[in-house]
Specification:
Rossmann fold; 18 helices; eight-stranded mixed sheet; alpha/beta
Amino acid sequence: MRTVGIIAEYNPFHNGHAYQIAEAKRITGADRCVVVMSGDFVQRGIPAVMDKYLRAQSALENGADLVLELPVCYAVGSAEYFASGAVALLDKLGVVDALCFGSECGDIETLSLLARELLAETPAFKSALRQRMKEGLTYPQARNQALCATAPHLTGALSVLQSPNNILGLEYLKALMRRHSRIQPYTLRRRGSGYHAADLEPSYSSALAIRESIRECGHIRHVKEQIPSSVYAAMEASFGRTFPIFPDDFSALLSYKLLLEQEQGYRAYLDVDQAFSDRLLGMLSSCESFSAFCDRLKTKNMTYTRVSRNLLHILLNIYRRDVDTYRREDYIYYARMLGFKKEKEPLLSSVKEHSEVPLLSKLADADRLIVSADGRKMLAADIRAAQIYSLPIQQKFGGAPPCEYSRQIVVM
């Protein structure tokens, strides 16, 4: 039996995701699919439009066999953190044979060549990178120019670094190489509109376009053709009850957290440097909404997405020192299940037999299964993030917020 891994957010799950799962199984010859999925907050630095259990259900209904939660410290991290945490989780399961990811170029050899060069980080490259960062370029711009200067033989391939899924794919490959993992990488060319495309297409629209359509129209009818029928049914059932959730639903929570900690500043949080902390303090009075604040804080060398991620790090209490510890201790302490297919229970047995980390299906078992204090701290952060996500649901739709301790994993 072969098992393919997929790293995803499914924000929300759409036709392109169903295509990827089916194709991933086909090109890798896999019988089983394990998905590592972001929880209630995602890598773009925003809350997920639907909660993690609904999104896990969507995946299981459309080809996934086991869905695991990516710890929040990686789910809302940079591409490197996101990829390193997710790859470590798949690798530690001990049963994953292949990793399949989408990319704009669809060429695993070109991506692997670039990944090896970036992983090498020669002294010349690091010097060129530092110089261009000092000149005020964003990290992606500085990296591209540094590669042009120090690896001219790669000039023809550098256009690959302009596309978001290619960049994330490179980080997956670097993480696999860094771990000397036995997992074999595969890539699928992305179909339909691009990752950043905000307009709906006939059948393969981006998740961004689907979210924007829901936000602007106030209903889901316009996206019916973009998502599998089972996902649409789940959206209908939860619309106006727990879904949809958008960044500005967290505006008041963010303002409160920033005001609460203004005396000590925000330097202790992941990716927040002194300059960004100072700029935040100088603009606290203009924090009208989450999205408007991101717009005001972005600069020519700090993108909107990076600003948004930094604000989430503050809101969710993701400290630099904690993430540094997790990385030193090899990233992952547990594999938390969000859902699985009963017919694939042998997969669970195989994971339990071969995994380096415990498979966690109930929070009640955490203290027994997770022996590391740092592992328990990581899980506590995941639980806290879910509780914070539930607060705007209560405010926006009414009713008691769902309790993470009483939520049952999805079994299909």
